[in-house]
Amino acid sequence: MSLTILDATLDGQCVGLRVEAEQITALGPDVQPANGDDVIDGAGMALVAPLVNGHTHAAMTLMRGFGDDMPLMEWLQDRIWPTEAKLTDDDVYWGTRLACVEMIRTGTVRFWDMYWHPEAVARAVEDAGIRASVALPLIDGLDPSKSDALRAQAERTLDALAGTSDRVTPTLGPHAIYTVSEKSLRWVAELSEERGLAVHIHLSETEGEVHDCVAAHGVRPAMYLDDIGALTPSTVLAHGVWLDDSELALIGERGATIVTNPVSNLKLAVGGVFPYGKARQHGIPVGLGTDGAASNNALDMLQDVKHLALMQKHAARDPAAMPASEAWAVATGERAPLLGQSGRIAAGEPADFLLVRADAPELTPGDLTANLVYATAGSVVDTTVVAGRVLMRGGQIGNEAEAREGAIASARRLGVIE
What percent of the chain has pLDDT over 70? Predict the structure, then answer.
C-alpha cells in the first residue's frame, strides 16, 4: 500500500508527500493521493527528518536504573557484566523490542547496536519495523590464543545476520582496545575490507583508557588503531572524549566517524567533553548516540541533542559554539553519512520521516529547529514512518504492550527487578 501525507508543514510551506515502494516519490503543495493510498492528515503538524542513534546497546533497557550513580568500572564489573552473563536470546529479543518502541516513540528510525545475541536483536528489529546496524561484541580478553575462535564466531554471526532483513546491516563490533587483542583487531580490519563492513568500536571514553594504551603500546588509542590498520573510512568510534589534537588530525585524515554520547558521558562522569569544534575542523564526520539505557537511562535523542549543544557551548565558553541547526544536523545523520541517514526529506529519498505536533507548547512559538533542539523531548512526535511503513500514528504503536510485558518478564528472570 502507498502512503500520502496531506497538509503538513515543511520549511514553513504547506505540502503533501507521497510514498511508493519505500521511497518518497512526490513532495510539494500539489501532491494528492492515488486511489487506495493510506492517507494521513498532517494539518497542524510539521514534517521533519528522523533521528539516527549512532551508538547504543538496545537490550540494556532490561537494566535501566540497575546500578545508577556508580563509577564506570565498578558499575560494569559488579552489576552489568554479571547480569549479561545470564542473558538468553529471549531476553535480548524483548529488551530490544522495548528499545525499539522507545526509539520509534521519540523519533529514531535507525540505531547502531553492539550487543549479545545479535540474531535476537535482528529479529526484534524486523518485528518492530525499524532499521539497525547490528554487531556482536567481539571480546577476547586481550588473549591472542582466543582470536581464531573469536573470528569463527564473528563470521558465523555475520553470515546469519546477512539473511535476516534489508533493514538490518551486519557490522563488526570489536568492543574496545582494552578488551580485544591486537591479533583480533588486525583480522577485524582485514574482514572489514574483505566484506565491505563497518567497524563499530568504543574508543577513548575514559582518561584511564588513554593512559593504559600509552603504557602498553607507547602510543595513544587512535594511533594504536591506525598502526594495526583498524582506522579507516569504515570505522565508527564511539565516545572519543579523550582524543587529543594529533589523534583528531589522524582520524580526519583516515576518514573515520566519531559518535559522541554526551548524556551517558555526563552520567558516568568520564571527566571530559568531546571536542566537537576541533573534530569538525579536521573534517571528521560526527554523529550522536545515547549509549545503552543502563547508562543513559533513556533512548530519547530529542533529549540528548540538547545536551550535545549545551555541553559544546559550555566547554567552549561560547554560546555560538554549536548552533541549533548544527546540533540538528548531527542528530539526523547529516554530519555522518556512514551512519545511514541523510537528514533530508526530498523526492527520491528513502521514506523515513516524522510528523511532530507543531502546536505543542514546546514548539510554540519560535523557530522549529531551535525548539526541537532546545525545548522538546520525544513526546512531540506524533507519527514515525520507516521505509514507507507507519510505525507510530497519533502516538500509538502496535504491540507496545507486548514489548513491555516481555521485557518486564525478562528483567524479573535476570533479577534486575522483583
Answer: 100
For the CA atoms of 286, 75, 186, 262, the dihedral, rounded to the nearest 10 degrees, stands at: 10
Looking at residue 288, what DSSP letter applies?
A: E
Residue 123 CA neighbour count, 13 Å, CB half: 13
| Contact (Cβ atoms closer than 8 angstroms) between residue 312 and residue 322 | yes
Q: What is the largest CA-CA distance in the chain?
A: 68
- Whole-number pLDDT of residue 184: 98
pLDDT digits over 345-372, tens only? 999 999 999 999 999 999 999 999 999 9
Residue 72: pLDDT above 90?
no
Which one-letter amino acid corresponds to residue 55? H
Is omega for the bond preceding 265 within 30 degrees of 0, making it cis? Answer: no
Q: Predicted confidence band at 87 (pLDDT cuts at 50, 70, 90)?
A: very high
Per-residue cell: 341: 541517514
Give strand pairing partners of 132: 111, 168
- Take residue 334 and report the three cell numbers written for it: 547529516
Cell numbers of 48, please? 521533519
Residue 105 and residue 393 in contact, taking contact as beta carbons nearer than 8 Å: no
171: enclosing H helix or E strand:
strand 168-174
Q: Is the dihedral of CA 408, 412, 415, 418 positive or negative?
A: positive
Q: How many residues does the chain have?
A: 418
May I ask the CATH class of domain 51-338?
alpha beta
Backbone angles phi, psi at 92, to 5 degrees: -65, -40
Cell numbers linked to 107:
523519533
Distance (Å, rounded) from C-alpha 346 to C-alpha 157?
Answer: 35
Tell me the CB-side half-sphere exposure of residue 117, using CA atoms within 13 A.
21
Dump pLDDT digits (tens) for 146-186. Answer: 999 999 999 999 999 998 899 999 999 999 999 999 999 99
Q: CA-CA distance, 32 to 30, in Å (whole number)?
A: 6
Domain extent listing, the chain: 3-49+348-400, 51-338
Judge whether 25 and 18 are in contact, CB under 8 Å: yes
CATH number 1.10.1740.10 is the correct assignment for the domain at 3-49+348-400? no
Q: Compute the distance between CA of residue 382 and CA of residue 45 in angstroms, rounded to an integer.
A: 8
